[in-house]
């Protein structure tokens, strides 16, 4: 495709704001009047309009006014086949799976239903500004074929894989380790690295996995070492007890995955609400990541992830954010940031020592505060780093894929516009102003702020 | 005004669903094809269309199709002058007040700004389906005059009063007890019982009140015994410690208000997150109520209100829901229900005994589950009962004021419609179906579900 360009106000990140406490702006890159030049879906230039426009005379420029343009949002943990049953009533994790989730996911064995659901899934992602998602599917081949077909058709950078389970599951929904291995291989050979698709070996969770299923995962990782691994860990106390009963040779939940050599770069454990200090250290040493899913953790009552603990520089754990739609009741990562902010603030009521003085930890407390720069880093560059795709997406560096979102900071519930006018009404935008507006987007607004979503340099979604 | 009528699908409550565990439907009243007849803003008839329509031949009927009509929502705790600063970053309660709130509230001393803010406030309430709110204003007379003028113009059933504070407050914003008493009296005599206005004696909170200010409140209550009393209690641990340092002759926070004879029917303490068992009992015995503000409690990290404990039939505490906008980051009570559901589920991770077996309490746990019928009772009849206005609003009984809301269950974020289709696509609605759809509205939808809001039998808001 010919070179094209977009002119507007851009914000992305060149570093991790958590490494610049008290001076977060140093981690951000802001172009009040910037130009992003794209060719064949890839960024070929980016900078201030006045600096670089002359180099690209003749290139068709789309002007995006009154918007903040960020890299597309990255969701580290989401469930394709729960699209219709998000927000199901009243159960904690384990009974919820049995009552609501497995019956719905099973419908994706039928191609027609899978196609309907998958279309809704991708439409909802784009309407939420999500351009990349590490996705759980089901253990059924048809469901996965439909997923990768649609991801390919939309040309989106997606990570997914056959989601296997063979314990604590109804027979109609269970895999065997052999079928899991065979069907995973089929999908890997057909889809991994084709177009923008990336494959993740996906044992649903330790509580649902026999030793044989996990051994099949280990075999696949040895045969295809550059694959991702996507699973759950330590989401809910009963689940943790249950997995240690099932794998009684392990001391803790992470040990179950370590036993099979699965923990390292490109490994994601979703939730991690009940991880111990030892497990956090081992995550960090292995270069593995946690997908923090606050909306789900609140919705299922799983608990409060120790975000500030995970981000301790002494053993920094890579963290992405996940909607965990449908344990999470919303598709939008903006709501995940809202709930992540709330989890952090709840953690701090303990960590400020006002209840138990012995619990005071002001440094950890500080890391629980989800400032807007921390927040939007976490769902762009931070998410990309956690998922080991930061060479491909997550910022406006030359050579990266041109996935981005244009946000209208006035859009959302009726209270949004007047609130935002406290920070800005007219004139040139500054980084400080944009930071304040983005906080308003995440706490007062919602996915209505997503005005446009672009995939590989092409407009893929325009809000009506 | 001439008689008018509305035909549609109606849901309201005849009893408290918490008193019908396992059979909540017994507390609800459902009309799949109902007729509500209104004259001079008051309900004069209500029932199945086929039963009563013939009695009202010649009356102009508005048909509301494809909607669920409920009584207007009741917000037990909200701050008019925080309309613009909702969602302010990063502080727990006490520093948040100093940094963000007092400076903004002070602007309402200027009539022009107060009028602008008050218009936004009421517009946002109506767009959220809220038809009655017990409202904090400021300690300034102008602000309160503007409030009651606008409430009168809109003919809404509102409770509010001069919001006094004289401790831990910047000088520019402080009342004196004498000025608080005098200006409160002025407002009471001018506005209480005029039109639909009701007055609440409003000492902002014990942490911000000298003995003299509280004594002024006591005097007002003795002089005007039918007034409401609206304040805060036990929201945040540091605040609790602080109030007991300020009022060191009291054992607990409720004791501060009891000392001045303020606790009884029509007394509301907002939040109550850190209330002791003894305080819950005394609330119950006094017939006083708590306004549960889950969005705010999460947003400011205040903690998790023990909803199931408050609703223990042995000492049932009256509970309303409050958005607490702007400590709460949203105007819509639907988001309060969403967050209330999450608080209940988080409570239950303790109460199921999976962490500490000694904490198991399955009965309390059951009361933490916010089913849709419990939820919508709580923001209609339940809220009215807690605020002692259930003779006036909160259900479709003959003689009550005709405030109601028409909800479109398909509206909200993009995922909403397909999710709701799991429960209903066509044909007659049933109570069971409507209950499921309402859960979708509160957990997957948002204030976009509010299609129309009617005040005293007249359409006051139509979604664009």
Automatic annotation (TrEMBL), chains A, B:
Q: How is the cofactor bound?
A: Binds 1 zinc ion per subunit.
Q: Which UniProt keywords apply?
A: Hydrolase, Metal-binding, Zinc
Q: What is any Pfam family matched here?
A: Amidohydro_1
The reaction(s) annotated as catalysed by this protein in its Swiss-Prot or TrEMBL entry are: guanine + H2O + H(+) = xanthine + NH4(+)
Amidohydrolase-related domain spans which residues?
Answer: 68-458
Pathway listed for it? Purine metabolism; guanine degradation; xanthine from guanine: step 1/1
Which InterPro entries does the record match to this protein?
Answer: Amidohydro-rel, Guanine_deaminase, Metal-dep_hydrolase_composite, Metal_Hydrolase, Metallo-dep_hydrolases
Tell me where on the tree of life, at the top rank, the source sits: Bacteria
Which Gene Ontology molecular function entries are recorded, alphabetically?
A: guanine deaminase activity
EC nos: 3.5.4.3
Q: Which cofactor does it need?
A: Zn(2+)
- Leader sequence range is none
- Provide the coiled-coil residue spans: none
Q: What does this protein do?
A: Catalyzes the hydrolytic deamination of guanine, producing xanthine and ammonia.
Instruction: Give the protein family.
Output: Belongs to the metallo-dependent hydrolases superfamily. ATZ/TRZ family.
Protein name (Swiss-Prot/TrEMBL): Guanine deaminase
Organism, scientific name: Herbiconiux gentiana
Gene name of this polypeptide: guaD
